[in-house]
Amino acid sequence: MKKKFLLLILITSLFIIPSSYATSSEDIILRVGLKALYERVPMIQINNTTLVVGYMVEDQWRKEVLLNSASGFKFTPANRSYLISIEFFNNYEAAKEVVRHLGLEGIKAYPGSISLGMWKIFVENDNETVMDQVNNRFGLTYHQIEDNELRVVMEADEYGVIFDNGFIHPVFETIDTINGIRVFDLGERKYRGRIEIGRYKSTEITAINIVTLEEYLYGVLPGEMSPNWPMEALKAQAVAARTYARYYRDVAPKYRFEPYDVCDTTNSQVYKGFSVEHERSNLAIDSTKGVMVYYGNNLIPTYFFSTSGGHTENSEDVWSAAVPYLKGVPDIYETDPSRRPWVTVLTPESIKDSLNRRNVNIGDILDVNVVGYTDAGRVTSLRIIGTGGEYVVNNETTRIWFGLYSRKFKLIKEDSQLQQVFNVINRTNTTVQPVDDLYMINGDGVTKKVMDAKDQFIVLSANNINNYPTIKGVKDQYIVVGQGFGHGVGMSQSGAKGMAQNGYTYDQIIEYYYTGVKVR
């Protein structure tokens, strides 16, 4: 959720977690779609030497067979025509023995797992004589089957297994360990827990990591917040991430039509598994185990983002609906932001291209104007004027369409006038001073004119952090001079860091950014 955000329609009605969900977070199982690297791909390689095949039966995992391979296990779609035995065996070894005998006769066959304790023989149906060769051999009869868009084949060393997946998907474990922890190695990333691999009505295959909620967080936290940040900030992030995952698993399921509860991208939360675990992040998770965020007795969607630029935002000023616990608050401890104040240059051509990609055509761009600002300082909308008409881009669409870090920005055009005077408070009164007479002291104690700042200077007020551009406008350019990174709703990660550095505890941080909530 850190680098990219979806437009969401907030659910304004409150949800109560049913008592059946009131279980320990160590018992809560998440199905994590490995969308970033292992969703709808032609092949998945598991680089372990052991693979334990099992099935979930009445919420209990039941072992079927332990497979070994020095070269690992390669999964691909089993999308061809097969002959499948009508009769079945109740164990892998019996089916494997039949396959061995058929192989000695030059017939390519596989043991096929149908369900717990049910194995059939799959024969590659690559010529018209195969049926005659295998039918009634070893007391088995066959019929032909076509691709069901579910079946996968696993190949290891010099043997293979087909997993039919038509009734139930097997779930794999491994006994290979790293530092005493059982870990799957999928190449670019490693994962705790179990792995499920299937096609789910696709021509390609997808991997799903099945882990406890706490194990999932071990692979989330380092991707969302630097493990070197203050411990109380890490704890706040752990609580927010835990609540977010639980909310979207149990209260408002986000992936009703997918075989997983959450995914590993910014569409849910960045999750990179065992590969990125860090002892400080793990400590923050362990020391807040099971702790979540509630408004009354209800879990909330704990949105978070990188950097506010001085003030978080009301939900209705970003998405669509006002939500009582998602109100903008001053973020004045965000003095060392992850995303420093920034500058982006838009041109008439780039604006036109962005609109055209969204099927908005107003001709050549003549002008762009900011329509208004929220109380927090974010642009509410941009009015774009073209040779063929006008178009107003509202709220988060502004940030997403034009690739901006945030909506907390000032727009500088060729005819823009920079602010010339400021109210300055001294020990006795307030005076109006020209900007050319104002000086600032940087972090090194060096004093210089504020207008000597390269792009903008930043002023900390009682309830915001504001930017003032020093850039002059240029013809045929729309210079966006901004602060912050992200949608601005909920907890600012940079702000949490600053609050922790100033002595606030994780629960105080959470209860500041989410209005009226309790951490428990």
From TrEMBL:
Signal peptide (from-to): 1-22
Keyword Signal applies: yes
GO biological process, one term: sporulation resulting in formation of a cellular spore
Domain Sporulation stage II protein D amidase enhancer LytB N-terminal per the UniProt entry, residue ranges: 202-295
The UniProt record lists the keyword Transmembrane: no
InterPro entries linked to this entry: Bact_Sporulation_Assoc, SpoIID/LytB, SpoIID/LytB_N
Record-level GO cellular component terms: outer membrane-bounded periplasmic space
UniProt keyword terms in alphabetical order: Signal
Bilayer-crossing regions: none
Entry superkingdom: Bacteria
Record Pfam families: SpoIID
NCBIfam families to which the protein is assigned, alphabetical: SpoIID_LytB
The protein's name: Stage II sporulation protein D
Organism of provenance: Natranaerovirga pectinivora
